[in-house]
């Protein structure tokens, strides 16, 4: 009896973990020949898998990374796996507004098109500061992408219909924004949650402002995936997270599917953007759908990224 109970319990755990890691795959076969896609943080994880998938569909893919060495290595791998030579790397440090401005100047000078912008790069909950004095999560996850998108918005409109896909996380639901303390930097996990909520508001307000101008905005939660975010933490923490990741998370390739879906799918475009999980629209918590907060965050972000 004990043996039977153990076997049943083990099978239950096995199928539960398998269900947890299950993901839908993007089945849309649309090509992107002649299109240009810019992906931030594409040297690893979901960003790199997205780059492989879109390059394989014929897109010219620009890989924007902080580390030039990692970017060069990623470009070689993406070219090999996608069987495409139309992959280039550019240096971009989202923790520096100066770097973002320099990157945009170079990009607009070098690239004639921008059809899809994928705001993928993210910093986990770490108590650190950017060179501009913002908390690292706010600066990289929100303000860096906010400035990047606004500086490239003109090119996106010129190439309409175009898309902006911003990666967020379901952890947005565990915090609310304090518009009087956007630079909150006390508890790492809460700092991260607030930045992911900012991504949701940003995507919502961008969609509202760009409505009728040919630019569709998507917020995407890729799910729990085995990425390299733990590299910012101790060896013991990384080991523990590796075990949990093996048990509960999906591959980065699976995590990239919703990003790819929002980047290529005509069905997703007809839905007019929104929040997507597992290759389908999902419902946000009521406070995350507050258009008034989204507008106020946008205005506050404009003031924060203005050069002194």
UniProtKB/TrEMBL annotation:
The keyword Plastid does not apply. It comes from the Eukaryota. Pfam families: adh_short (PF00106). GO terms for molecular function: oxidoreductase activity. Keywords: Oxidoreductase. InterPro entries: NAD(P)-bd_dom_sf, SDR_fam. Belongs to the short-chain dehydrogenases/reductases (SDR) family. This is Si:dkey-174n20.1. It comes from Hippocampus comes. The lineage of its organism: Eukaryota, Metazoa, Chordata, Craniata, Vertebrata.
């Amino acid at each position: 009896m004990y043996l039977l109970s153990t076997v049943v319990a083990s099978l239950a755990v096995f199928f539960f973990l398998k269900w947890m890691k299950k993901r839908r795959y993007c089945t849309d076969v649309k090509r992107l020949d002649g299109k240009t896609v810019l992906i931030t943080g594409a040297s690893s994880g979901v960003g790199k898998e997205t780059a492989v998938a879109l390059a394989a569909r014929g897109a010219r893919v620009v890989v924007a990374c902080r580390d030039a060495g990692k970017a060069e290595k990623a470009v070689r791998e993406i070219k090999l796996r996608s069987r495409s030579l139309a992959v280039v790397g550019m240096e971009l440090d989202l923790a520096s507004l100066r770097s973002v401005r320099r990157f945009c100047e170079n990009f607009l000078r070098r690239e004639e098109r921008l059809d899809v912008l994928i705001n993928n790069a993210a910093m986990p909950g770490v108590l650190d500061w950017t060179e501009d004095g913002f908390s690292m999560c706010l600066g990289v996850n929100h303000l860096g992408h906010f400035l990047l998108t606004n500086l490239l918005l003109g090119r996106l409109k010129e190439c309409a219909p175009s898309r902006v896909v911003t990666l967020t996380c379901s952890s947005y639901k565990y915090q609310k924004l304090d518009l009087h303390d956007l630079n909150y930097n006390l508890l790492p996990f809460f700092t991260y949650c607030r930045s992911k909520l900012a991504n949701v508001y940003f995507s919502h307000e961008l969609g509202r402002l760009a409505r009728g101008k040919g630019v569709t905005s998507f917020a995407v939660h890729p799910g729990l995936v085995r990425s390299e975010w733990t590299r910012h933490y101790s060896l013991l923490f990384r080991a523990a997270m590796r075990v949990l990741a093996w048990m509960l998370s999906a591959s980065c390739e699976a995590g990239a599917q919703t990003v790819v879906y929002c980047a290529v799918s005509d069905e997703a475009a007809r839905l007019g953007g929104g929040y997507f999980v597992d290759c389908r629209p999902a419902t946000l918590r009521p406070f995350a759908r507050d258009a008034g907060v989204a507008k106020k965050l946008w205005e506050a972000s404009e003031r924060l990224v203005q050069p002194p």
